[in-house]
């Protein structure tokens, strides 16, 4: 539907910020369409976590990259309350498709010095995430708790994965980090419980024998 709308409307339908790339008649591939919708600038929104802390989240898309790398969406959240810095990267295949039977290891969740590599879930659509991010940014408001749909999950490490087979953006981000193959399962704690969780000092145990 979006493709048909862009192809059929007037020359003014494309993003003014990319006049050299986004002439409607020149958009002949879904990768070009994604580039013109999301662009390659850094975007930022704010949301409130359960404690009331306003958290800043940024988004980047590697549109128009000169290396011709598969398109990738990156989301970043800085450390706040009990949460570490988090970076998520999701990437498509070279064809522009985000879900394919042969497309593996195309999602990164980086916490601290550990990079978790997963397959992008079939019900996650990065372009929709990017478009919603831009709409929220253009509204210039803070997302309150009632505006958010929150789920909590646990990452379980299944093994290691070779850095060299991963998307170049993931390679650059994780070159000095531990890289593991992980899977995501639902957590048995709510976001509110996680945000209020406190680590207690450990008790030293004397060696036996």
Q: What is the element layout, followed by pairings?
A:
Layout: H1 2-8, H2 30-38, E1 43-48, E2 54-61, E3 72-77, E4 86-91, E5 107-111, E6 114-118, H3 126-139, E7 142-143, E8 153-160, H4 168-174, E9 178-186, H5 191-196
Parallel strand pairs: 1-7, 6-9
Antiparallel strand pairs: 1-2, 2-3, 3-4, 4-5, 5-6, 8-9
Explain this structure to me?
This protein has about 210 residues and is an alpha+beta fold. Helix content is about 20%, strand content about 25%. It has a 9-stranded mixed sheet with strand order 7-1-2-3-4-5-6-9-8, with helices on both faces. The longest helix is centred in the middle third of the chain and has 14 residues, at about 125-140. The chain is globular and about 50 Å long.
What would you say about this model in short?
This protein has 209 residues and is α+β, with helices and mostly antiparallel strands. The protein is built from 5 helices and 9 strands.
């Amino acid at each position: 539907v979006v493709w048909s709308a862009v192809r059929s409307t007037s020359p003014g339908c494309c993003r003014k910020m990319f006049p050299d790339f986004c002439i409607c008649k020149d958009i002949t591939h879904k990768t070009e369409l994604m580039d013109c919708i999301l662009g390659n600038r850094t975007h930022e929104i704010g949301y409130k976590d359960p404690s009331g802390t306003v958290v800043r989240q940024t988004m980047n898309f590697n549109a128009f990259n000169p290396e011709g790398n598969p398109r990738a969406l990156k989301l970043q959240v800085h450390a706040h309350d009990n949460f570490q810095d988090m970076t998520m990267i999701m990437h498509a295949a070279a064809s522009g498709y985000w879900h394919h039977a042969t497309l593996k290891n195309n999602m990164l969740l980086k916490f601290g010095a550990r990079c978790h590599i997963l397959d992008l879930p079939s019900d996650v659509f990065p372009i929709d995430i990017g478009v919603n991010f831009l709409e929220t940014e253009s509204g210039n408001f803070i997302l309150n708790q009632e505006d958010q749909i929150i789920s909590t999950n646990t990452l379980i490490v299944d093994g290691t994965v070779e850095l060299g087979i991963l998307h170049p953006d993931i390679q650059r981000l994780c070159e000095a980090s531990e890289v593991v193959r992980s899977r995501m399962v639902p957590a048995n704690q709510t976001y509110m419980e996680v945000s209020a969780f406190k680590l207690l000092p450990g008790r030293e145990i004397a060696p036996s024998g």
